[in-house]
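Lesson 9: reading folded outputs for more than one chain in a single document. The general rule is that every protein is listed as its sequence immediately followed by its structure tokens, and records are never interleaved. Here is the first one.
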Amino acid sequence: MGSSFFRASIMGLLPNDRDLTKPSETVELVVDASDYRVKVVDLVVRLDHFLVERINWRSRNSIQQLIREGFVLVDVPTPERPRGGGEPVVEKRPSRKLRHGSRVVVVIPDENRRQFSADAMGPIDVLFEDEEVLVLNKPPYVAVHPAGRYYSDTLIQRVHAHFKDEVNRGVMAPRLCHRLDRETSGIVLIAKRPAGHTQLRQQFENRSVRKSYQAIVCGVPIPSEGSIRSAIGSSRTSAVRLKMAVRVDGMESRTDYAVLEEVGSDQRRHALVRCDLFTGRQHQIRVHLAAQGHPLVGDKLYGPDEALFQRSLDGELSAADLKELEHERQALHNTLLAFESPASGPVEINCPLAPDLQAFLDARRGG
């Protein structure tokens, strides 16, 4: 099975007390039966196969070499100790069998630690800042936190690097208040301290935070505005574990939309659509619009063929694939966020459409 069929369960990579401005020396992973869609008692997976799906900074062959050279430690649970013995030991057999609950610790070789260091972090684009919050404009292709294949140069690591002195003095402990997909751009809210994080998270849970996105979709939705209230749950037909779908027995979901602009030729029309979120389900906008027959431009998972998603992860998208997608990434941008700052009171942030999406529209205007 391909790497898109799994979700890495990462522990120890982002503990609250770790300084993310310093190079990581280890990555700890936990084997979880839910990632494989099997019962706990049925899960058996080889160590090398497990790591191949989760490490993008080593090739398949070099992962086996990494194991044989003693860079991998394993703590396997037993009936007496379902959480393991607590002391991972070096495991040099790539074929070592792992079960649900097994902990795997990978020691990052020196040549790979550079990409985890503060010096390797990219910049941050600050839209708003006060004593308690930080609002950033996240560029596309940057993960918000370390997970799966993306361990380095994530948005939260960039924040730790940018505020290195404050973090080291203990006056800041930045935490994400919500998330955007790696390809999605736009507004991200970060709390500077735990108390503020708790207050802001409560606002999200109470649905008092206003969130608005802009998406470029294939075709033009009819009617031009409306409310999509289809329930969402895990897809039962997809081989991609993280894929969601409209399901009668899913979770309550609501997306209000309005067409802002139509572009393109009669043969291929597109629409710029404003989407206001009233719930925050995984991939909600992408699922709702695709279910209406208007998937996002560039969406590899909910667009023409979900096989594009796997080929993208493997770096194997062809010129024909990109032509079919029409854009390299999903055309989604978080344009508005309104919340109550613990320090400043009501705050409303607006963020113009990302340059690559604006360029897509400009190229098709007057078509």
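And here is the second record, again sequence then tokens.
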Amino acid sequence: MTIAELVKKYDPENQFEVLKNSYKQIEYARNNSYDLEGIDTSRIKNIIVSGLGGSAISGDLMSNFLQNEISLPFQVNRNYSIPQYADESTLLLASSYSGNTEETISVLNEALTRRCQIICLTTGGMIKEIADRENLSVILLQKGYQPRYSLGLSFFSLLKVLQTLKLVTTSLELIEKTISLWKKNGDEFSAENNLSFQLAEKLVGFLPVIYATADLTSAVGNRFKCQLNENSKVHAFHNAFPELNHNEIIGWETYDERIAKLKAIFIEEESSHPQIKKRFVITGELLTKVGVEIISLSSSQATFQERLLDLIYLTDWISYYLAIQRGKDPSEIEYIHLLKKRLAN
């Protein structure tokens, strides 16, 4: 079947067009206006991004993205509470696309009692109601997306907040480059028999094991794993060098494809430490020896930050195509809805 036929048959909400037009989310975030005058940057000593799922991944990605740029401690929080150190010197970014994520609402209420400086990123819901009542700064995101398909909105809105507060120096030129890159790649990845479609084909019938590099590309690896779970409806696993070489590597000694058919995906980055590059090579040799195929993903963009955003967009497309190649709706998240319903009772 052609891509158009697969999309028509298995993608009733047309996430294909959402992915193709992801660059427009960056444009929206770039042009969005809001008031942050209530934030006193002179008091900020640490930053916490609190959210779950698609509303938290922007924080993970930002942590990798700003690794050599941000001087303040930066943490992503996925829970009902915030760390004990959080206080009036903490900038708390409450990220919930729907505005009704129960964990994030709990964190927001606790952050108010701790007198944190708070900015909410949301489309509305309870988060917006609390923000309005407490006179908090709100970044209103564009409505109409599933949270995991709105990374352009959440990530670049978060980046603009940090730029506006002068906590980072990332240039506006990078944003324009990413808009152009995602637009160009969106055209390429939506064409028949494109690279992302071919890579997805290689994963049909296999469980992906994704290896990235800690603090460098680990957000891409974890995002890919989660997108494969939600979009493709498959189990997937993620770990990062060098830690995996101190434990997980031993599991491959007894690999048996009759028990689990695995494929390894290496997310490689040219600026990695030389020893990390050697670890990729050596681990690859060991996996090949036991009969595991390795798919290597990398980017040829000019800078690390561009390469990171290039890879995360590519892997989103791979997870989408794996869904429709497997005859699955890339929008459906039945078990998540079921869980939320049970929790609410």
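What the second record shows: The two ends are 43 Å apart (CA to CA).
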